[in-house]
Amino acid sequence: MTIADIKKTAETKMAKSIESFKGELQKIRTGRAHPGILDQVSVDYYGSMVPISQVANVSLLDARTISVQPWEKGMGAKIEKAIRESDLGLNPASQGDLIRVPMPALTEERRRDLTKVVRNTGEDAKVAVRNLRRDANEQLKKLLKDKLATEDEERRSQDEVQKLTDRTIGEIDKLVQGKEADILAV
């Protein structure tokens, strides 16, 4: 493995960490409706558990209401039950074929709790990035030990990996601040 390979691998893995973190942030609900909130809810479809998005059309009616339109007539009750039993604290209501899922307003205390959750998730993402930096630096030291790189190359590469790490952590901080502002906005 060359120095370029090590840096490229670290960069790719850090980008994946950010994508994973963005996915985690989407699961944390704010006061606004977001169709992605129902992504983790599964419904029984002829004996197998599938995400709601595979058996119904999930869209927004307004800023605080998600609409779920089942593709088959008999799925409405099952979808409604799955949403109600999920740990999201949502209470769906049927209107014929359409299921409306109103988003309850968040209390001030719940908003503060959610910001703590966002910060902890951000810290976990930072730890993952720092672990990637450590792995890259260990690989660079191994190249130096095996005499496949000079000390100057190894030092320069470690500095570049550190700059990449700093950039990635800065991006995570921006995402955390944005999500906190979103949660605290009434």
Automatic annotation (TrEMBL):
InterPro entries: Ribosome_recyc_fac (IPR002661), Ribosome_recyc_fac_dom (IPR023584), RRF_sf (IPR036191)
Superkingdom of the organism of origin: Bacteria
Alphabetic keyword roster: Coiled coil, Cytoplasm, Protein biosynthesis
Predominant place of localization: cytoplasm
Subcellular location(s) per record: Cytoplasm
Coiled-coil residues: 126-153
Domain Ribosome recycling factor: 21-184
SUPFAM superfamilies in the record: Ribosome recycling factor, RRF (SSF55194)
Protein purpose: Responsible for the release of ribosomes from messenger RNA at the termination of protein biosynthesis. May increase the efficiency of translation by recycling ribosomes from one round of translation to another.
NCBIfam families in the cross-refs: frr
PANTHER family: MITOCHONDRIAL RIBOSOME RECYCLING FACTOR PSEUDO 1 (PTHR20982:SF3), RIBOSOME RECYCLING FACTOR (PTHR20982)
Protein name: Ribosome-recycling factor
Organism taxonomic ancestry: Bacteria, Pseudomonadati, Pseudomonadota, Betaproteobacteria, Burkholderiales
